[in-house]
Design brief:
The chain has 464 residues and is mostly beta strands. It has 2 domains: 130 residues, Double Stranded RNA Binding Domain (2-Layer Sandwich); 279 residues, Porin. 12% of the residues lie in helices and 50% in strands. The protein is built from 4 helices and 24 strands. A 12-stranded antiparallel beta barrel has the order 6-9-10-12-13-16-17-19-20-22-23-24. A 5-stranded mixed beta sheet has the order 1-5-4-3-2. Helix 2 packs across helix 3. The longest helix is centred in the first third of the chain and has 20 residues.
């Protein structure tokens, strides 16, 4: 009799909760393994995570110092007035830290009007549904169906869930999700090459009046992402460029060329094509807006092509990003093709470019991963020329010295922060060097790169 009374109470309670939930649109909860509610919970340190912990505590589920479960949660915003943001949706996972970080439950809630009441309904529903899961993880239901077992879901809390720092526009956000990022790229090239053969200064002086010693580029970029729809994320990057060329004039020693300014703006629309279990795929379609300068001068003389900060014309970028995630290993592939739409106002355009990134990463801890990446670049030569440049002055002034095939190899370190001052942020580093070089004509080569990337999301980086 007690057994039947238990089922009767559960069914009545579930119906009552269903009525309450009907007032909160689009709630979803899946529990795939029995949760020991007495073992305690910790959560992402944000407004939603903290409220869930308080709601559980109000029901008698106080957490010990070392709780067994961790609730990862992120949320999206909506504007209620022109200057006021409110949480519009949230979603998350419950992770069993005592069982290899296995995901034991997932939940999501959309179109929230009252956050506190919505979380109350959520916690009541989690407790109620957990009663319906037996100790052998079978779902006790009046219709005798079972929950899917050992469900593998994409874990965006992992430090390797994003691409290494040298890859742009590598992930999408849920609706209302926001990300702000800063990227620093230091690039330094030394020596003059034709294909992969280095030329001496004596050989350069037989063709040109100046010998290029080195080129260094410092790029500071601000990245922004916003989820306008559950499948569509907008991405933009604005860059400030600092360029320096050191050259030698025979009998006159070393001299410098220096230029700086804003570069072209990169804008992309990222559309999620699928996101299932341990794989994700989204398209990258974008426009490069010519906000940089093509008229930089060194006193009265126009500077070479590589010392300008912009292209002077619109370009289209097309491609896709594929990600996969296994228990300890993850990786991805991103091929992008850049096509210029016209020559600029002074009569030239840079060659179209095929840029392919592929990488592997190993999860070391819950907040640290290591990565290896290769970047294949096939860039065509400049079409046309800037008639203001003296082609015989230096190799940088000759448009025939352009176009290349490169293969760069990078080693990276990736950190995902869940608590403290850096919570909801990611930090990644990469060092890159050339594994293969083939330059058309005489060009500065052997570029090494150091890349630092900082990302912050107010709603947390979980579930990207």
């Amino acid at each position: 009799m007690k057994k039947y009374l238990f089922f009767f109470i559960i069914i009545i309670s579930y119906e009552t909760l269903s009525q309450k939930i009907s007032n909160t649109k689009n709630i979803s909860i899946n529990i795939v393994s029995k949760i020991d509610m007495s073992s305690g919970f910790d959560a992402t340190d944000n407004r939603v995570g903290n409220q869930i912990i308080r709601s559980l505590a109000s029901r008698g589920y106080e957490s010990p110092e070392d709780p067994r479960y961790f609730i990862t949660v992120s949320f999206g915003w909506r504007y209620v007035r022109t200057s006021e943001l409110m949480i519009n949706n949230f979603k998350g996972f419950i992770i069993d830290k005592n069982n290899s970080d296995k995901v034991v439950a997932e939940f999501s809630l959309d179109k929230i009007k009252d956050l506190e009441k919505s979380i109350e309904v959520l916690t009541e529903n989690i407790i109620s549904k957990n009663y319906l899961v037996s100790d052998n993880n079978k779902f006790i239901d009046v219709q005798d169906h079972f929950m899917k077992m050992n469900m593998e879901m994409w874990d965006s809390s992992r430090p390797d869930s994003h691409a290494p720092s040298g890859v742009d526009a590598d992930h999408v956000h849920s609706k209302g999700g926001i990300m702000i990022g800063y990227k620093y790229n230091l690039s330094n090239g030394v020596g003059t090459y034709n294909h992969n053969n280095r030329f001496t200064s004596e050989e350069i002086y037989s063709y040109y009046q100046r010998d290029i010693i080195s080129q260094s580029f410092n790029t500071h970029s601000l990245e922004m992402m916003y989820g306008v729809h559950k499948n569509l994320t907008l991405y933009t990057k604005v860059s400030l460029l600092n360029k320096k060329t050191i050259y030698n004039v025979l009998l006159n020693g070393d001299n410098n060329l220096i230029s700086q300014g804003f570069g072209d703006i990169d804008f992309q629309a990222l559309y999620s094509l699928f996101s299932k279990k341990n794989m994700k795929l989204h398209s990258n379609v974008g426009l490069v807006i010519p906000s940089g300068n093509i008229n930089k001068k060194n006193k009265i003389n126009i500077m070479p092509y590589s010392m300008q900060t912009g292209s002077g014309y619109f370009s289209v970028r097309m491609g896709f990003t594929y990600l996969f995630q296994l228990k300890k290993i993850s990786g991805g592939l991103q091929p992008l093709y850049l096509v210029g739409l016209a020559d600029n106002s002074v009569g030239y355009s840079y060659g179209n470019e095929l840029n392919i990134n592929y990488w592997l990463a190993v999860k070391i801890t819950n907040f640290l991963s290591l990565s290896i990446r290769q970047n294949y670049i096939n860039k065509k030569s400049i079409s046309g020329e800037d008639s203001r440049l003296n082609r015989t002055l230096m190799i940088l002034n000759n448009s025939n010295n352009s176009g290349e095939i490169l293969l760069n190899t990078s080693f990276g370190l990736n950190l995902s922060m869940n608590k403290g001052l850096l919570r909801n942020s990611r930090v990644s580093f990469e060092y890159s060097f050339p594994s293969h070089m083939s330059y058309n004509g005489l060009q500065v080569g052997s570029y090494n790169h150091f890349i630092l990337n900082l990302q912050y999301s107010p709603g947390g980086h979980k579930n990207h």
